[in-house]
Amino acid sequence: MRDGWVEALPRWRAWVVAGAVLLLVLIVGRGWLSERLFPHPRLNRQLELAQAALSRGVLSSADGRGARELFESVLAADPDQEAARQGLVDVGNAAISDAQRALEQGQVARARARLALAEALSAPSGQLQSLRARLHDQEEASGSVPSLLAEAGAAGVDEVRALDLVARALQMEPANTQAVDLRADLLTRRIARADAAILAGRIDQAQALVAGVVDIDPAHLDLPAVQGRLGEAMARRQDAIGREFDAARADERAGRVNHAANRYLALRAQGVDAARVQAGLDRAATLMAAQAQHEAADFRFRAAEASLQAARSWSPESDAVQAAETRLRQAHLAERRLRKPLGPAERRRVANAVVLAREAMDRGQFLAPPGASAWDRLRVAMSLAPADPAVRVVQRELAARSATCFEEALADNRLHRAQECLETRVAIVPGRGASAQDRRRLADRWIARAEERLGASDWTAADAAIASARRWQPSDPRVKDLATRLRRARGTSP
Predict the structure, then answer these.
(1) Does 349 reside within a domain?
(2) What are phi and psi of 402, to 5 degrees?
(3) What is the pTM of this model?
């Protein structure tokens, strides 16, 4: 038994020696294995930063944060790091691509810097050689920085040309103080012109000048001040435009259609809110087309044509304009039919109707009594001979006398009489006989009468006054308020 133990002893010693060797290898090679199998976290972070810089186009930077510097720092710590080696190759390729773009854009200084970077990273010489040749050609064509600046500062050189020359000089030497100062002077002059445009009210021109300065040098010292002045001027212009729109709407409501349209056309000439301006012109065209229809109905064809032409110029596609054109054609046909000579009996009826209409006017019977009023007599004459000169004279006379009657009755607070006179004007010229102002004046008087009658508990008179006010101003909130008060005063539910 002892002999077997002795035989096994060398084998046991061999296992001990092998284990000791393995332990020594693990201790000594732990760092090497861990670096190969599990890279150091700091190097991983450096690689991530390098790839991010490459993606952003920051190929090289003096502060060490460029892609080239970051990849090289990884290789300095681990010369066998393949990702860092490939990263430097990618940086070289990116430098070549950017140099090509810079040459296409005429940016000589940038192209020169990118080619130098690619050469330092041992980029393929074939690509570098062709790009160097192109760079040389552009440098020869662009001239030297001193000659560019001398030309830019010469007397009589156009400002745009001068700025272009300075920009080329700065592409070649971005830190050239003379070029930077010359550019600042040229932009200061442009800002001065923008200020002059602001003072003259040429806001669009000022905007273009300031925008040009921002594009070239957004950090120019004079920019904030002129931008503030431009903002104030633009705010003032917006206020003025708002007031002009309000004035145009007021002209529309008052029936001053031409005035309203002229305001909208002036706003359009200024380049103001095209959709809003066209909406105003569409409304003006609708009002003018309605006027053309009334003029055509009265056989006043010259006036109707003029109104229709104005409406058409404001809104060619308006449905109202097309309807007025149709109505004008119909009126021409009707007028031709009525041109047929009247018989003796018809002429006597026309003459008699004219006489009776004048007699009714003399009595002040404009709308009443029915059948014997001046308006009813005139309608008979108009149905027989609408284009007869005597009939037209009576028509104009009735319109004028009813207008005078309205003013006199309103001054005396005879509201029923004023209402009859205004209704006569509406009957003679539908849609245009009563202006918006006259309608409002009469409605105001009826509202005051309703207030008075409500205070006196005269419900019937108050109700009649409210109805008359509603006839002339149906959307006036005071009319609705009075009607509600009357119902409550009578004890009915609102």
Answers:
(1) yes
(2) -70, -35
(3) 0.41
Q: Give the residue among 334, 405, 412 at the shortest CA–CA distance from 373.
A: 405
Question: Is residue 112, in this structure, part of any structural domain at all?
Answer: yes
pLDDT in tens, 268-321: 888 877 888 888 888 888 888 888 877 776 667 788 888 888 888 898 888 888
- Residue 362 sits in the same domain as residue 383: yes
In a domain, 27, yes or no: no
Which residue, 445, 361, 438, is CA-closest to 407? Answer: 438
d(CA 148, CA 144): 6
CA atoms of 349 and 384, how far apart (whole Å): 8
Report d(CA 453, CA 449) in Å as an integer. 6
Q: Which domain holds residue 492?
A: 438-494
Residues 100 and 159 both lie in one domain: no
> How buried is 141 (Cβ within 10 angstroms: 0-12 exposed, 13-18 middle, 19+ buried)?
exposed
DSSP 138-169: HHHHH--HHHHHHHHTSTT--HHHHHHHHHHH
Quick one: tokens of 114? 């990118």
Count the domains in the chain: 5
pLDDT of 124 reads 80
Smallest Cα–Cα separation from 463: which of 436, 489, 434, 486? 486
Written as six digits, the tokens of 332 are 């021409």
440 burial class (0-12, 13-18, 19+ CB within 10 angstroms)? middle
Q: Are residues 219 and 136 in the same domain?
A: no
Question: Based on the domain organization, do 491 and 422 belong to the same domain?
Answer: no
Residue that finishes a domain, picked among 409, 434, 459: 434
Of 109, 162, 170, whose CA–CA distance to 138 is shortest? 109
- Amino acid code (one letter) for 452: E
